[in-house]
Design a protein that fits this description.
This protein is of the alpha+beta class. The chain has ten helices and 46 strands.
Length: 891
């Protein structure tokens, strides 16, 4: 277990050591540091079961529970010295509940120059005496003259916001009862700022498989199984607290492995397993929990028993094992919360009826999700309302928990499904738009085909110009963040436009002030355009995207405010025609007549009032009826290595492309000068252009795309499309030391995928490492194949300790015949006479030059003009369980 290096500071930080007082007989689990940490920091664990105090009012605890549980009692000085030297925060427990115990503890902490971080109490019952006891303790802390005491986080067992409306309890008649109202009122008014819902896995929660009890109906229907009801109850009560949690408060639920209540037992098959306990804790953290407190493993039960008691045989050992496992589960998510960018909690709803639950967070351009299926059938979670995720999760088997990761350049999206169909945009209640002509835009069905939304914005009111805008609560970007603004455009007549805007500079009844307007994406009679602002700057038009009327285009505008006054670029896909990948747009400046510049980046006019930190809305403009806009969104830019060549010049050698960023490098002879982009051969490849050698001789080259945001340990996918049966390959590369007149140095080539002599082969690098060939697949003439290499940098399977590492498996899909993907079975070619039949092969990765954090480009080769390469891509492998989740990753 990791140790805490820093605790939250209240007032002046007089020392590096703070204190925690735990009052009552519960276990302290993992705690986060910082009111706004939002489940980011590391925690620590304690267990009062490990050493039961007898005489001292205050005993030391803390440290690594895996090693020591609670440390032995000692004098204050000894405790402080030993814990300080160990870098371990110190906690206190008192067996008394009142001021007689609390007063001397607080006085001692303050007089010795320390600070109190938490007071976590277990005062139970609902008499006025118990309420007074609780309120006196809270008041004692809040009125202490020492700010290092009065600023502590304070919580009590079972007190949390929203508890009066929590319907997850076993007894539906308790919802809204006076004692819950009283507790909630105390929470909001007394100075408590730690929500502590009781999220035990309790057998009586299984009652939710029925629609009612004693004639009183449960809210929300029934759960499909007893185990799903038990799992749901804890998740729902934590979610209730999270939905109602005041800003700055912490959420620290009580957890337990399983509590079998007398007279409400369940069969052993319906008891949560350790994998379920792990998933529960991770769901809680992904829903905003800042820590947890564990209760002892329960043995006062009949019938079914907990896994931990069955395994360890006594309460103390079982409790310590459970707490340690939950700590490991919690800390398994540390990397998720340590990333840069704004943190978003994606789901606080639960799905009692279906028995499938999901939780997730987005941190910058990365999304992490956990899906748990406690129903009896395989099913998936519905993600359609979530901008940063696919429309649904992968299928999850019964009693399975799946962790997933995605890259996403969308954080917020306006899809207009919540607007009133048929009403103009100035007649949408709280969702109404402002500006010059909001009455000339209405919510209607998306025109044409391809847009699967139920509603979109459609221009009305005749053949004239119209403009309006809406406020948009966007992410908290910095002024220097590289951001994507995107939307769906449908050009029926004349023109249609969207742009991000700072609404502070817009008159409610007129036009926006130009100084507050962002860059503008438009379609004019089908031509795609980008301009620095709605009223200013040169106008740039796409030269590689044909004019498109009557079709839906999804357009992503990338805004980089860090170069000059900003640079903009576009990526687009034709939704109506079913295009899956995005094509990068190449522009011509329409203001320079007679010259076609071919540029990837358009100069913008960003400034103090118009940059990603203050864009908080969108302008929509159109001329004529029937133009439409949908799914306006914004999010962090995610760098990528994708290249589909549709933005290259056809028939022009790859070392002679006009756009500087698209010029390839390599040998003068047999290099990029002998490679060109042309129409794909055969069928199955939907791209406009693919790359091939120009003549009868072989050619090889490399080029830089972008350095992705992948970590060296990230599970990743690298894929490309190949046509031909021999002499064609692709490889991800690190271009850091590549010369313009030669190939990438071999020790910087990630791995090599090739068709050679009618075989699919994989090698750790271009010229080094073992060579493996497929035994269950051979490329056929005249076919396009998508080859997907799934990389796990965290494993070393070559049988040699140290040195190079990594494991890969390969899937191939025949695109021409559209057949099912095949998991490749490999044979090691150096072991003649032996066919190994390997579904995974070792890679040639290292920490310095060859791993997912280093690759920033591609190298390809072709034997002659009969072969082609296309659609080179990289992405995160979505399943965190690389070994157990083995499938082709579809678009």
């Amino acid at each position: 277990m990791k140790k805490v290096s820093q605790m939250r500071t209240h007032g002046k930080n007089r020392t590096a050591l703070h204190w925690v007082i735990v009052m009552g007989g519960a276990l302290l689990g993992v705690l986060e540091s910082g009111a706004t940490a939002m489940a980011q920091a590391e925690g620590y664990f304690t267990s009062w079961q490990a050493i039961e105090p007898t005489n001292p009012e205050i005993v030391q605890n803390g440290g690594d529970i895996v090693a020591v549980g609670w440390a032995e009692r000692g004098d204050y000085d000894d405790v402080i010295i030993s814990n300080t030297l160990a870098g371990v925060p110190t906690g206190l427990e008192t067996r008394g509940w009142g001021l007689a115990t609390l007063d001397p503890a607080l006085d001692w902490i303050s007089s010795n120059g320390y600070a109190l971080d938490y007071l976590l109490m277990d005062i139970e019952g609902d008499t006025q005496t118990q309420y007074d006891l609780l309120l006196d303790n809270v008041d004692r802390v809040r009125t202490d003259p020492d700010p290092n005491i009065s600023g502590a986080y304070v919580g009590n067992y079972g007190y949390y916001p929203g508890m009066s409306v929590d319907t997850s309890g076993a007894w539906p008649w308790n919802v809204g009862e006076q004692y819950k109202i009283d507790r909630e009122d105390i929470y909001y008014t007394s100075g408590i700022n730690v929500a502590m819902p009781v999220a035990y896995s309790s057998s009586q929660s299984a009652l939710h498989v029925a629609s009612s009890i004693n004639g009183v109906p449960y809210v929300g229907g029934t759960a499909p199984t007893q185990i799903s009801a038990i799992f749901w109850q804890g998740l729902e009560t934590v979610s209730v607290a999270a939905r109602h949690l005041p800003a700055g408060d912490l959420l620290i639920p009580y957890i337990a492995d399983f509590v079998n209540k007398p007279n409400y037992g369940v069969p052993q098959s319906q008891v949560l397993l350790p994998t379920d306990n792990v998933a529960q804790v991770q769901h809680y953290r992904l829903r905003g929990a800042n820590g947890f407190r564990t209760w002892e493993v329960n043995v006062n039960q009949s019938g079914a028993t907990t896994y931990y008691y069955q395994t360890y045989g006594n309460v103390v050992t079982a409790t310590l094992a459970f707490t340690a496992d939950m700590a490991d589960a919690w800390q398994a998510l540390d990397g998720v919360f340590a990333r840069d960018g704004e943190l978003r909690t994606l789901n606080l709803a639960t799905n009692k009826n279906a028995g499938i639950e999901w939780s997730g967070v987005q941190r910058g351009g990365r999304v992490d999700v956990l899906v748990s299926n406690m129903n009896t059938t395989t099913q998936h979670a519905d993600w359609s309302p979530v901008a940063a995720l696919p429309s649904q999760s992968p299928d999850v088997a019964y009693h399975d928990h799946v962790r997933l990761q995605y890259e996403a350049c969308t954080m917020d999206r306006e899809d207009y499904e919540q607007h009133v169909f048929g009403n103009a945009m100035n007649n949408q209640g709280a969702n109404s738009w402002t500006g010059a002509n909001p009455d000339k835009f209405a919510i209607g069905s998306p025109p044409g085909s391809g847009n699967v939304s139920g509603q979109s914005i459609v221009s009305t009111g005749g053949y004239n110009g119209k403009v309006a805008w809406s406020a948009f609560d966007g992410p908290s970007f910095n002024s220097t963040d590289k951001v994507v603004y995107s939307g769906l455009l449908y050009n029926a007549i004349s023109g249609v436009t969207f742009e991000p805007i700072n609404v502070a500079g817009g008159s409610p009844t007129g036009y926006a002030v130009p100084a507050y307007q962002g860059p503008t994406v438009s379609m004019a009679w089908g031509a795609l355009r980008l301009r620095s602002g709605y009223d200013g700057g040169d106008l740039y038009q796409a030269v590689n995207i044909p004019a498109t009327m009557g079709k839906w285009l999804e357009v992503k505008m990338v805004v980089n405010p860090t170069v000059g006054t900003g640079l903009g670029s576009l990526y687009v896909r034709n939704v109506t025609d079913g295009q899956k990948g995005f094509t990068r747009v190449v522009f011509d400046n329409l203001n320079t007549t007679g010259v076609t510049e071919r540029v990837l980046f358009v100069p913008l006019l960003m400034g103090v009032n118009k940059n990603p930190s203050n864009f908080n809305g969108f302008i929509v403009a159109a001329y004529g009826d029937g133009n439409a806009v949908d799914d306006l969104s914004m999010g962090y830019y995610v760098p990528q290595m994708n290249d589909n060549f549709d933005h290259y010049q056809s028939g022009v050698a790859m070392d002679s492309q006009v756009v500087p960023q698209l010029v390839w490098k390599g040998p003068a002879s047999g290099g990029p000068g002998q490679l060109t982009a042309s129409a794909p051969y055969g069928t199955g490849n939907t791209s406009t252009l693919a790359v091939r050698p120009t003549g009868a001789s072989a050619a090889s080259a490399w080029w830089e795309t972008e350095l992705t945001g992948h970590d060296a340990s990230d599970l990743t996918v690298y894929s490309g499309q190949l046509y031909g049966t021999t002499g064609v390959y692709f490889a991800p590369v690190n271009t850091a030391t590549s010369a313009s007149n030669g190939l990438t140095p071999n020790n910087y080539v990630g791995f090599l995928v090739q068709f050679e002599q009618g075989e699919l082969r994989l090698r750790g690098s271009r010229d080094s490492g073992e060579l493996y060939k497929a035994t269950n697949f051979a490329p056929a003439s005249g076919k396009w194949y998508d080859i997907q290499v799934q990389v796990d940098p965290n494993r070393d399977i070559d049988g040699v300790a140290g040195g190079d590492f990594g494991a890969a498996r390969v899937w191939v899909k025949n695109l021409t015949d559209n057949t099912a993907p095949v998991l490749i079975d490999f044979d090691k070619m150096s072991t003649t006479g032996v066919v190994e039949s390997l579904l995974e092969v070792p890679l040639f990765l290292n920490a310095t030059t060859r791993n997912p954090s280093k690759w920033n480009g591609w190298e390809i080769s072709g034997i002659n003009s009969s072969v082609q390469v296309d659609n080179l891509r990289s992405a995160l492998y979505p399943y965190l369980d690389f070994v157990g989740r083995n499938q082709y990753i579809a678009d």
